[in-house]
Specification:
Blueprint (H helix, E strand, L loop, with lengths): L7 E7 L6 H9 L8 E7 L6 H11 L3 E6 L5 H11 L4 E4 L4 E3 L3 H12 L3 E9 L23 E4 L9 E4 H7 L10 H10 L4 E12 L5 H21 L4 H8 L8 H13 L5 H10 L5 H26 L1
Parallel strand pairs: 1-2, 1-4, 2-3, 6-9
Antiparallel strand pairs: 4-8, 5-9, 6-8, 7-9
Helix pairs in contact: 7-8, 7-11, 10-11
Length: 317
Amino acid sequence: MHKTDYEISIIIPSHNRLDTLPRVLLALENQDYPKSLFEVIVVDDKSKDGTQEFLKAFAEQTILNLKWVEGAAGNAGAARNKGLELASGNLVLFLDSDTIPQADVVRQHLVWHDHYGVEACILGRVAMSDKLLQKDQGRVNDTLTRHDIHEIAELDWHEYRTANTSLSRQRCLEAGGFDAALPAAEDTEFASRLLSLGMRFIYVRDICVVHHHPMSYEGFFYKGELYGQAAARWYKKNPELRRLIIARYGVFAPEMRKRKKAKYILRALVVNRWSVPIISMLGRSVRRAWFNLSDTLYKCVFRYYVRQAFRANLKKI
């Protein structure tokens, strides 16, 4: 049994997010749950924006039980693994350095774990910040799920995402932590291994954080390339999951059914290297006046970059 003084450890990976990290920590200081019963672990992944200096000063005056360490300039998965090594709580709560929790988030996670037990992963809602509904922002509303209309729902494992989720620290370690070789999609791949341990994924809408991550449209499309790279690595790593991977990321592979291949070819005829600049420009031009349409257009371009990166990286692996 891992000796612990805390009921839950909150793990926050961070890289150059000094614009939002202080807001996340301030929100944790204002939680309606005793500070003596939870700890906060920030893994700063070699930020260059003054994050380390901020954390040094903050640690001296905060009411939080705060640990902070420097990561290895890897990725979010590697940073979360570092946090897991340092955590002493029986439960861990994953937040991001741009997900600002409401005042009852810690308490709500613990309440629902009392209800569902150690074999449950509790997922809260991630609401997009209203401040990102701007013309120059490339961030789309990608935190919505089909379960947001429900108060409580049980999710399939491949619907898991890391931010605002809590689960047993021991189960995380038994699953082997996050795959640090994946530049993206490490949360979904992690969930595939949690499932083999009997984990259930329970969504609770009232546990809410606000996601505030400003991003240019170029940054958003580059994120698509990272997902394509990750999908290719995961495809090679887990042959038994190939059909699910290609369906989830909309990429082409021999395992696709004929009907899906036809849809892929049709999509490629419409969204290709000649049309992508036009679709991207149209998305930017209607961003402020018609945000939902802009979202749709940006997602089309995002998926194009996923498909291209998947195909290119599959040849290299």
